[in-house]
Amino acid sequence: MFMGIFVGLLAAFGASSLNVFLKQLSDFTPNFLSWVRFTAAAISIALIVTVFLDWEIPAIEFWLIVLFAKVPIEILLAYLTTISLRLSDLSIVGPISASFSSLFLVPVGYFVLGELPTDIGFIGVLSVVGGSFFLGEKKNGKYFEGLKNLILARGVWLAVLSAFLASVAISITKLLFHYAHPLLATFYATATLSIVLVPFALKQQKVRLRSRVKPIVGLWATSSISIALHNYGLSLMPAVYFISIKRLSMIFDVFFGKRFFKEEHVGERLIGASIMVLGVALIALD
């Protein structure tokens, strides 16, 4: 459990850093950004597999799940995430996506994987989710006004939908682990995604690439680290626990939103993030 918590914290920082670069590059086509992410991850994981594992080809069932479930869901998820970051603040979209995917992961994880948290773990998950309702800008001390503002924020509903897709993608990823080692499964899935997205990536205007080298390199680097940690962490503990720990990324999202994009209302949003930290603590004590 301790190793899973540690990997989850590293994955949280990596996920939030990835969000920063996605928002900086949100004027690029979502499919191009997805291609950069998956290609980076595939190359990095291939190196790790070569050093530490033996290469094996999974059974046909693995490839059917990848092609007909993993690939379409991941492409749509990446598209919605990029658009939501383009429309709304990182300090709103990041926590919403993170917390609601934990909520959706409970029923999805049960139906797909047969996993359910204990009572303490379930309270922790609810705390992580409940904190998101304090992310909006309150007026006259009324948090219900903050909730209203949150609901009306551009990109929030796309973030909620992407959170649901993320919970499905997470459960499918754990299902793939039944057919191959987590790192092997991750490589084959991300490599397939990279190949599928090549035609879409080629449509990106090259003239824009030359002026945005640094954030693209940052996206490449954070993608390599984040996807590897994400899939490794899922192999260490039940998905609902690991993802809830990883949701500490929402704290980084609030601070990074202020630091890199000059976003406001950090105080109110940190209240929500603090409640989510409590939820993570309950999960860790479970």
Tell me the overall shape.
globular
Low-confidence stretches: none
Please, what is the average pLDDT? 82
Intertermini distance: 10 Å
Secondary-structure element order, N to C: HHHHHHHHHHHHH
Q: How many beta-strand segments? A: 0
CA gyration radius, whole angstroms = 18 Å
The count of helical stretches stands at 13
Secondary structure: helix percent: over 70%
Tally of individual domains = 1
Q: Which class do the helix and strand fractions yield?
A: mainly alpha
Largest sheet report: none
Strand percentage lies at under 5%
Question: Short summary of the structure?
Answer:
The protein is mostly helical and about 290 residues long.
Question: What is the topology?
Answer:
Layout: H1 2-24, H2 30-52, H3 60-87, H4 90-113, H5 119-130, H6 143-152, H7 156-176, H8 182-201, H9 206-209, H10 213-234, H11 239-246, H12 249-261, H13 266-285
